[in-house]
Amino acid sequence: MLLVPPAYIRLKERQSEEAARQMMKVYYEKDLEFIKQQESERVSSVLAALKINCDQFQHVSYEIVRARAMPMQKPHQLQEKATKMFLNKQFIQDLTKLDDERRVYRGANYYLNLYTAFYDSKLRKDAGKIMSSYITMCLNDEALSKIDYIIIPGGSNLLLGLEVGELLGKKTLCMAESPRYDKQQPWDGEYIYNAQKGLNHILILHDVLVSGKRIRDVSEMLPSGTFQLDALFCLIKLKHNSYNPEELVTNAFKPNFDSSKIHYLLSVDEKRLENILNG
């Protein structure tokens, strides 16, 4: 039997370990190179679908990162933050390519679509923080404490509503565009009315205000005589000469509601959307 010094055995073991490390390093470097290539191709295809190039994407990413670092202590700071985050060409829909019959908002040529944007959890959380901060800036503690429900209109942004409801500690109710099983309950969530307690105080939260029709529908879908609208909050108002949402909403919820209770963080017209899209 050949006797091998312990020092020689340890040396061979170290050499074997080093060889294994070198092999794994080469393997992972090659594998990582392949992953990066696949990711690059995937990102390029997504950007092509969004009709923006890599330089534009880098600019948008930079603006969003910079916006996240901005303070949120005053309304104008929230507005600046929201402007940088949401008034980006990736969220703007060019409706000029659609016939009027295909448009939800006839006569409108540009629309700001944030619905699928909030599938991005980071962007959704950003929007939730911005809107919850805006609400607390506009309402005093007493008014906010009275709110029983945050209502999301049918077809509006449920993800944003859930985020804000969680941050403010309020129950969220989502109006369904059509009843799921009970024609007298066209909403998702639990809505309780206690006559002894009095009317439920509701706050309606919407993403992009255009005509006001979705807001008006809430007044017709909730049980009559069970609620009072205390405030309407919208992330963005899209101004258009064909629509007067303030008048429509005020008439729907009168006599205890007026236009001073309508709040929107940003206001933008089609010309500005067109300039952003083509700029």
Strand order of the largest sheet: 5-4-3-6-7-8
Number of domains: 2
Distance between the termini: 83 Å
Which class do the helix and strand fractions yield?
A: alpha/beta
The largest pleated sheet is described as: 6 strands, mixed
Structure notes:
The protein has 279 residues and is an alpha/beta fold. The chain folds into 2 domains: 6-50; 91-278, Rossmann fold (3-Layer(aba) Sandwich), CATH 3.40.50.2020. The protein is 48% helix and 17% strand. It contains 9 helices and 8 strands. The strands form 2 sheets. It has a 6-stranded mixed β-sheet with strand order 5-4-3-6-7-8, sandwiched between helices. It has a two-stranded antiparallel ribbon with strand order 1-2. Helix 3 runs antiparallel to helix 4 and helix 7 runs parallel beside helix 8 (245-253).
Helix/strand layout:
Blueprint: H1 6-50, H2 54-68, H3 75-86, E1 92-94, E2 110-112, H4 121-138, H5 141-146, E3 149-152, H6 158-168, E4 171-175, E5 187-188, E6 200-209, H7 213-221, E7 227-239, H8 245-253, E8 262-269, H9 270-278
Parallel strand pairs: 3-4, 3-6, 6-7, 7-8
Antiparallel strand pairs: 1-2, 4-5
Quick summary:
The chain is an alpha/beta fold and 279 residues long. Helix content is 48%, strand content 17%. It has helices at residues 6-50, 54-68, 75-86, 121-138, 141-146, 158-168, 213-221, 245-253, 270-278, and strands at 92-94, 110-112, 149-152, 171-175, 187-188, 200-209, 227-239, 262-269.
